[in-house]
Structure formats: C-alpha cells, structure tokens
Amino acid sequence: MNHESESVVSLEVREDGVAVVRINRPEAKNALNSAVREQLAEHFRALARDQQVRAIVLTGGDKCFVAGADIREFAEARPIEMYLRHTELLWEAIARCPKPVIAAVNGFALGGGCELAMHCDIIVAGESARFGQPEVKLGLMPGAGGTQRLIRAVGKFQAMRIALTGCLVPAPQALALGMVSEVVDDEVTLARALEIASEIASLPPLAVAQIKEVMLAGADLPLESALVLERKAFQLLFDSRDQKEGARAFLEKRKAIFSGE
Ligand code: CO8
C-alpha cells in the first residue's frame, strides 16, 4: 500500500445484521484517494464473507457523501501509471458484494462519488444532496462505470445531458429521473437507510441474495437468458428451509421464523 495506514473508512456491525461502512475524510470532502479505495475494498471483501452480515449501509456522514476521485492523485498521472493502479479491482469488491448495499447520501455525490452510489443497490438521498458526473470539466470522463450505470438507470437523453454538461443534479430531480430510490429530510438520511437495511436483514438471506444476483446479472443479458437465470434461481430456493418455513407460516397464519438456511 502506498499510503499512510490511517483509518479513513470505518466499519460497524450491528446486532441486527446491518453493517455500516462510513467514509471519513471530511477535510477533502471524502474524495476517494488510494487509502479510501483500498479500505473500502477491504471492508467489502470481509463483509461479503461474514455470515452475520445481512445488509450494508454505505455513508459519507451528514455533510458530504464523496466529492469524487482525489484529483490530487491523478493531476500529473500518465496512462500506464493509471493502468497499473488497477483500481477496477477495488471497485469490483463493491460491485460483486452479494449482500444488498444501501447508500445514504447527504451533500455531494460527484464523479467517482456518484459512481460509488451507483454501485449500491438502493440509494437514499437527503433533500439537499447533489449528484453529478463533472469529470468533463476536468478534461476527463467518468471512469468507474458512470457512463454505463447512469445510462442504464436514467436512459440516454438524461445520462447524456448529465455527463456531457457536468451539471449538478439536485436530489428531487435525481428521484424524478430514477437515479435514487428515495429522498428524505437531510437529518434522517442515515436513519432511513438503516431502517431499510434492517428490514432486509430480517428477511431470508438466501432469497435476498438470489434476487440481487439475478437482477444485476440479468439486466445485461438477453431477456430469454435472463428469464432462464431467474427460473433457475427461483427453483434453487425450493431447497431452502426458509422457503418451507415461509410457506408453512403463511398457511398456519403465524409469523415466520427464518433460520437463514
Ligand atoms: N479531490 C481532491 N480534493 C477535493 C476534491 C476532490 N475530488 N473535492 C474537494 N476536495 C478538497 C478541496 O480541494 C478542498 O481542500 P482544501 O481545503 O485543502 O483547499 C476541500 O476538499 C474542500 O473543498 P471546497 O473548498 O472546494 O468545498 P466547497 O464546498 O466550496 O465545494 C465541491 C465542494 C463542489 C464538492 C468542490 O470541492 C468540487 O467541485 N470538488 C471536485 C468535484 C469533482 O470534480 N469531482 C470529480 C473528480 S474526477 C472523478 O471523480 C473521476 C472518477 C473516475 C473514477 C475511476 C478512477 C480510476
């Protein structure tokens, strides 16, 4: 690692099975330097394997989600140097996380910060949050999925407008475009994300994991192949105890007790 080992990303695992990953670099608006990226990846890799963890909340705190990649770290960089950083391996740790990830976004989610939010499965935004892909203003372009995830989320004409102008997208507009899942008062962003995470954490984890995997993998497949994938995952769940318990509890008019198996 080519950075100081200070902790810029904290992790808390709560009793309800929700993990809270918090980026904490306020002096640089939580910009993603190599320390933040590596620590994020380390936490996500560990959380993916932790059986106690059922859902993850990713936040940058009350003031700012993430103002992008750290511009200082690539101001003078050359292409081979950028290639050798292999930051795609760090992003992959988040993209491939099998547990649902809920972003709690207050303040700015710009550039790599907007891309980071789009790596998540659900985005809760505070009413004054602002999203954007301003890389074009730096002579750059989105480099961590921004062109592709944005166009898939909001369609061609809004994605082009946002990426080609580098404009800021206020949270209510982001909601109308389908860039975020919910907009809430700034003070309750994290609480609402935790509430959603906690609800998911109480549900059968095998079903939750299959839904996430099939939705993400299927979105990039031809419909017929995606439907086959869905059917196979659906059938697989009939081997889980939680499926039997869910059906029996419904028929016996009682609350299901899920074991996670
Ligand atoms: N990188 C480094 N430092 C930053 C960044 C950043 N992205 N954003 C803010 N900071 C620093 C500022 O330099 C400043 O530091 P200092 O106090 O030492 O001068 C401190 O944070 C506070 O920032 P401001 O004084 O600018 O605060 P304001 O409230 O006035 O403005 C903004 C906040 C609007 C967020 C403003 O800081 C800004 O525009 N930041 C840059 C936003 C941006 O352009 N982001 C895109 C970066 S490029 C990118 O993300 C490419 C992603 C590709 C990913 C794949 C990589 C391989």
TrEMBL record:
CDD domains from the UniProt entry: crotonase-like
Keywords assigned by UniProt, alphabetized: Lyase
Keyword Flavoprotein tagged: no
Entries under InterPro entries matching the protein: ClpP/crotonase-like_dom_sf, Enoyl-CoA_hyd/isom_CS, Enoyl-CoA_hydra/iso, Enoyl-CoA_hydra_C
Stored Pfam families: ECH_1
Family that this chain belongs to: Belongs to the enoyl-CoA hydratase/isomerase family.
Entry-linked NCBIfam families: PRK08138.1
PANTHER family linked to this entry: ENOYL-COA HYDRATASE, MITOCHONDRIAL (PTHR11941:SF54), ENOYL-COA HYDRATASE-RELATED (PTHR11941)
Protein's name in the database: Enoyl-CoA hydratase
Species assigned in the record: Stutzerimonas tarimensis
